[in-house]
Amino acid sequence: MAESKSTIPLAPMDKLCRKAGADRVSTGAAKAMAYALEEIAAQIAVRAVKLAKHAGRKTIKTEDITLAKDEIWG
Predict the structure, then answer these.
(1) Cα–Cα 20 to 30 A to 10, which of 27, 35, 39, 67?
(2) pLDDT digits (tens, 9 = 90+) for 47-71
(3) What residue ranges in 5-44 does DSSP mark as E strands?
(4) What pTM was estimated for this model as a whole?
(5) % helix / strand / coil in the chain, to the nearest 5?
(6) Where does the pLDDT of residue 2 fall: very low under 50, low under 70, confident under 90, or very high at 90 and above?
């Protein structure tokens, strides 16, 4: 896990884990979830930027994010 603080708040990470069926979620688990989601989001963002630039745009659109997510996660 990275040393820097995550930009994603921990409460939503706790909520996601509880929605998935967890009775309790440790602070460490919530932090790990936040770091993991940031890493995934960063990969999608990098690909979306490339897609927007390829289309001759500076603005990332919804379809760039959707296509990037589909390319990365199938």
Answers:
(1) 67
(2) 999 999 999 999 999 999 999 999 9
(3) none
(4) 0.84
(5) 70, 0, 30
(6) very low
